[in-house]
Amino acid sequence: MAKRSDTDKAIRNIMNWAERPEWSGELSAVFDAHLSPVCSKLDISQEELSEELEEHGYSGMLFGMVFEDFLSGHLSADKKNVVDDYLTRRGWRESVPGRRYLRQLRNSVLSIYEVVAVSPGQHCDVTDLVRGGKAVRVHERMGTQNLVKWDRIAARVLTTKGKHTFSGGILPFPMEASQSLLRVVANSREQFDKELSRVADEASSKLIKSATDLDDTFLKEACAAVTSIWLLHTLEKLRAPLPEMVNRDGNALLFSETRFPFLPETLDDIVENLDGAPDWERDGPDSNAWIWLPKPATGRDTSERGIAFDSLDEGQQIINGTLELNSGVLVLMTNSSMERTERGTEVLQKLLHNLIGPPLSKLQTPEQLMADDSDRQGRDKGPPTDTIDPEIAAELIRNTLDQHYRKCLDEPIPALENKTPRQCARSKKWRPKVIE
After folding, report:
1. What is the three-class DSSP state of 124?
2. Which of 92, 232, 368, 384 is close enough to 364 for a disulfide, judged by CB 3.0 to 4.6 Å?
């Protein structure tokens, strides 16, 4: 089996060779064949299409698929293939495994495969949905990391010394898209058979079909259809608005995080009150988190409003939200409307009266949450910490301290003979003692 360094070097060299004047026009024509039908249907330019694919991380995947189509059998005006041309004139630059890999790509056929078994990071067993036959085991590390049983992919299976591997270009196909593609190939084959029967007698037809690998022929011609169908389905998914998402109460789905500051001396009382409340269940004996259990279901039907979501605990019981006890702050998290957030705030303020400070809530829609997650990708991730915006933190601390010291002004103090500081401040006799 060729080493990755040998195959990578061979691919880099053939890509550079394809940029030569005698081949650049042929390569552009192949890209046009793959992309122009989609651009015409969607009324966009190839540049706009490329930008959209780049934005979602699909451009490299598609380039690999189209470039391998260019390598596999496409001929120039003088009936030359780019791989044959390169190996004849510069093949001495490549190792034996590198030359073998390029010849395999030249003779390869793109097909639609279904995954019937997978060992992530090692290999997968696939069946060819067009040409049929028994399942083959394909040895692949990276490509099998995200595959699961019954996935469908467009790929080229190469064989070296009886061992099967994937080439570089692989497209994941949803079931609907793969069925569309299989119908296109089947219809093309059916039309060919009808035309052959019309122009040739039965004996001649059988002879032609037995002497020609028609499935391979149709698959080579259908490569542009593969990418076009994949592109149309992929872009439709990317551009489609999210469905309306609601919780079990029928409220629009929102992700909320509400923070309640508290002073260190109130910590034990907060824990005691939460442990004693029937609606709050500690997430584990040593956990600093509680689960907010719902009241009995009302039987409200939300099926007509959209896709219903809710949070579940490990036992698959629906919950209202979760409460985490962090340094100096309680964090209530729910996935619901503002109504549930306000209800949770009211419940906690009643349960933990005078033990917590005023709440500060942050709401996010599913779209905003996904956008934030996308922004976080690519950034270095440090150790997990419970951090908040400095301005928000300052406001929380100020409000908590204000509440604490206002409360102290109205509490009897033994040193003032159980009078409150506010009472003593009004008296000339007691004012110096308050200051002291």
Report:
1. strand
2. 368
